[in-house]
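Marked as duplicate of an earlier ticket. Keeping the data here for the record.
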Amino acid sequence: MDTPVGDIAFINGKVITGGFEPSTATGVAIRLGRIAAVGSDSEVRAAIGPHTEVIDLKGRTIAPGLNDAHCHPMWVGLGMTTVNCASPPNATVADIVQRIAERVRATPTGGWVMGRGYDQARLDDQRHPTRYDLDPVSPNNPVIVVRACGHIAAVNSRALELAGIDRNTPDPEGGTIDRDAHGEPTGVVREAAQTLVRSVMPEPTKEQLQAALIAAGNDFLSKGVTSVAEAGIYNPTQMRAYVDLRNEGRLPVRTYLMMMIDEMLDHMIALGIRTGFGDEWLRIGPAKFFLDGSIGGRTARMSRPYEGEESNVGLWMDDPEAMKARFVRAHKAGFQCCAHAIGDAAITLLLDAYEQALAEDPRPDHRHRIEHCSIVDLEMVRRIKRVGAVPIPGTSFLYAFQNAYIQNLGMERIRYAYGMNTYYEHGIVAAASTDAPVVSTSATIGLQTMLTRRSEEGQVLWEEEAVSLEEAVRAYSYNGAYASFEERIKGTLEVGKLGDAVVFETDISAVPAHQVGAVQVDLTIADGRIVYDREAAGRATAQ
């Protein structure tokens, strides 16, 4: 089904085009779903038709529709029904347990109870929940509480029992099972060890996934985000959920799909499908694999040990040479490639793989990606430039997790973490992302963090990496489009491009940088249609 297109114009505002320099334009016209004019009010009025809706911005800022280059819409939507274990509102493990207890009381006996979002570095206890915390409130229901990063979970004894995990269960390849002084599992499962638990949990149906995608998409639209990259399609049911929504004209945001190499690559190769297949609303993206874990969970693969743990340099998800071979194969099959790579050792391995693939099968414009690309040094940045890779920094991570980064790695090793200024200085296109639900879907928090390098607590980390408002918006618009080979059709407010835009509640350039995260979105426009209206949403909520 074709998506309807709109005919709308905006005047008397401040325009951020997605370019590097401030714009003098005051308006934008969109006709038949495409941008028809960007310029002065008179230039915009000259481009409109007799039935064009004209909106007076009254000094508000209009910018390109934002692009979250790495997130998990399925899990954002599904997570809306799970227990909120984040901090705030939870200050202690006991607070989390109380919320789990409330959900257990509302859940039939034997039903799974799921929570998400805790970060031990932000809890007063400075530790993970364990089965010893969860068991007293959940004797008959399996419970899983997932850390904010998604790489660690705490489960109760009932969940361990269903998963067949006991003191004799070996650590799986690419994962660990935490054990107490007596060798008994504590309930904390890291990386691939989570799979043992998830394998006995019920899989969401296509209909549940579709409902989750619509809920998540509407949330993204309320943040001014019109395009996303879904960071993992694992099975045909997930694929059908997306395709059917697109065919029915119900997909809320434009989506670029990362296809998991182990689960989906063979299917794609057999069908002759590769990166780029699809349309402006739903497109096949890169082939993806996980190389390592997270910094907060101390499982990201590092070249040197974590602070205070001389034997811990993190985890590989598989044998390094086997992982490299996966990328070479995906590259030769015509795919853009990408990997979750956070630690410096993981990023180095990924660059090795890309160099090998390009040596064996040269491709001038591959745009292979580095998802998160967290811990680098200056020489690695230069190597990223030489290889032509596209970093996808988690631009809100330093807002949410800065304390954990400092605790686990120290200040010097995170000098270039999510260093947007350094990327710009080296001519590297780095695309902003949230990794939601790891952090909030809020794009303005991402903009604020790029502008200030401030954590939620107000601590500034390596302010040399702060960028201008125009550079931050470009990272969240054009750069994301570039990372999906779509910069010719979206990412900037330019004549002929898709009519996607966001209207902020004020002139965002006049807002102090450390307050940008609080700026709300008044309107979100896709194909020239208003797809989110804060005033209308407020009226609906009040009713």
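See parent ticket for discussion. The radius of gyration is 23 Å.
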